[in-house]
Amino acid sequence: MTKHAELTHLFRAMKAPAAARALPNLAERARQEEWSYERFAEALLSTEISSRESHGGESRIKAARFPARKTLEEFDFTFQRSVKKQVIEHLGQLDFLHAKQNVILLGPPGTGKTHISIALGVRACLAGQRVLFRTATEWVAMLADAQRQGKLDEELTRLERIPLLVCDEVGYIPFDPQAASLMFMLVSRRYERASMIVTSNKPFSAWGEIFGDDMAATAMVDRLIHHAEILSLKGDSYRLKDRDLGPQPGRRTTETS
């Protein structure tokens, strides 16, 4: 057995396949460039660690259950000009996540709220953080099911340990009192403990209608925005930008959105 074959066998026995694959090329480069033993070992180990982090990120992305895969690089800032690219790029550094702060995205349908929320979630997954994505109605359904089983507190405690929850589409469907109570509990349990990204097509002033109780809505908004980056997206729907819908009552005809 050659030295390469022997080392490859040892790496595979250690469950380090990326290092095994990289071994021949790295060994040749090390000889040509006269690397020290320490540098060669560092290069092999770094290759394996990078591979594991990449695979771990993909596993976390799958577990998050995003409805699609989006990136910040794909976001069309030439169409959506109501938010500054620098602000989104700063959010992409995930400082808000480490500080246990929230991100709130408000605006009409199709203005990019869900795209940004997914892209930030994907960034978090690739950075080693666990993320869960659900619509507001899905979060309520999940918590209601836990409540029926007598496991609501257990479920809320489990969710507290996940660094980032994405709550999409708040306001598309009004909540009944039980649903509003469950959403309030979710927000309250995460307050100053872990981050949320929340998207809504309604301004905060209309959240009383969503939750059927102005006081409950005010208390929820207070907790969400106390430590939060709030972005208001404006304009027409990106999904309709290439469709000729004809004259629309009250629709703007400017080129920017």
Verbal overview:
This protein has 257 residues and is α/β, with parallel strands linked by helices. The chain has 11 helices and 5 strands, in the order αααααβαβααβαβααβ. Helix 2 packs antiparallel against helix 3 and helix 9 runs parallel beside helix 11 (214-226). The radius of gyration is 24 Å and the shape is elongated. Residues 250-257 have low confidence and may be disordered.
Describe this structure in a few short sentences.
The chain is α/β, with parallel strands linked by helices and 257 residues long. Helix content is 53%, strand content 11%.
List the helices and strands and how they pair.
Elements: H1 3-13, H2 17-33, H3 37-64, H4 85-91, H5 95-98, E1 102-106, H6 113-126, E2 131-135, H7 136-148, H8 152-160, E3 164-170, H9 177-190, E4 195-200, H10 207-211, H11 214-226, E5 228-232
Parallel strand pairs: 1-4, 1-5, 2-3, 3-4
